[in-house]
Amino acid sequence: MPHPRTRGKGLRHRLAELRGPETQAKALDARALAALAANPGCRRRAILDGAGVNKAALASALGSPSVFGQSQFAFVRGNAFEAKVKADGGTELLRLAHEKLDRGAEPPAEARVPDLTAQGPEGRTARTELALREAAAESGVWTLLDHPMLALDVAGSLAFLEPDAVVVHPDGSWTVVEIKSFPMLDGAADPAKVGAAARQAAVYVLALERVAERLDPPPRVRHRVLLVCPKDFSNLPTASAVDVRKQRAVTQRQLARLTRIEEIADTLPEGTCFSPELPAEQLEQAVESVPATYAPECLSACELAFHCRDRSRAAGAVTSLGRPVRAELGGLTTVGDVLAAARGEAGDPDDPAVAALRRAAALRAEALASAAGAARETAHGTREVAACP
């Protein structure tokens, strides 16, 4: 039973102790917050991200280096496509916003594109808020904010977020724009990639809502974001309106949980530290002191995924087979438990999961017996034919 950490210390001080007193905190971005929302039950990721731990460096120190991240080729291609979408003062981007989100408004013949240049993230955040105030006050005009800077309170500190764009409609409402380089084929894109983009956009929607709350009257932040992608196999932009209300609600719940990471910190042994400079054995002990909830989806969203996968497989956890499988198995949490239940060696027969496993095992045994019998009959017939003169 781990000893609780000293409760008299402030949260920031405790988080600094966890990442190492000489280690600079790694700022959270929208991708990290979206990944948290995709796996809200992982206490390990919650405390590491909340403390600002560099998980890529941590994974390397543990001997499971991460390959998570965007390739240089994809990065260059994405930047080139974004520049094309925003060319000529965002004419094409605003046309898509009008077509997909606001056909009742006047077409964007002319639009304001305010200069958001300022010193540092705090200055850019203030400049963005001022531009949004001015756009909300000037109704009847389309406004495009190119790479605005938004701030969101995460675990007691500010996370600075930079959406691709924000469009202010003639009615004063605000829309988040996500520009991605994956294609839309026949009007539809890869559902997994769209889901990841929606979770990221939901973070921006939450940050915009914080800005809107400070205005009087507060502008409406639209929950349908504009997802812009290349059309088919060309470099021409097309777009789709994506409703992110579900993703926004999940992200908001996860952020509320993050603001209570002191509850997780209080359960850790005294002196726990996740600094990559520590010896590997001590570092692994610190990481394993926080439970993780691994799933195959983590491989595309978390730098520690390889480490957690190895531990999950070693423990025989069914989560390594995927969340749908885990959900079907109820209280059976390990592969050993599942096999024992299927063989009738353990488990409550009245448990629907246990009953289904035993029925599946019986059907499998019956099918194998039938196949073996058919194989014997075929072999016998072959021998009889071969024996005929």
Structural write-up:
The chain is α/β, with parallel strands linked by helices. 49% of the residues lie in helices and 11% in strands. It has 15 helices and eight strands. The protein has helices spanning 11-19, 30-38, 43-50, 55-61, 72-85, 87-101, 120-137, 191-213, 245-258, 262-265, 280-288, 305-314, 323-328, 335-342, 352-387; strands spanning 111-112, 142-146, 150-154, 157-161, 165-168, 174-179, 224-230, 237-243. The strands form two sheets. It has a six-stranded mixed β-sheet with strand order 1-2-5-6-7-8, sandwiched between helices. A hairpin with a 6-residue loop joins β7 (224-230) and β8 (237-243). α2 (30-38) packs across α9 (245-258) and α8 (191-213) packs across α9 (245-258). The longest helix is centred in the last third of the chain and has 36 residues, at 352-387. The radius of gyration is 27 Å and the shape is globular.
Helical segment count: 15
Broad structural category: alpha/beta
Order of strands in the sheet with the most strands?
1-2-5-6-7-8
Share of β-strand residues: 5-15%
Give the C-alpha Rg: 27 Å
Assign a percent range to the helix content.
40-55%
Mean pLDDT: 85
Question: So what's the overall shape?
Answer: globular
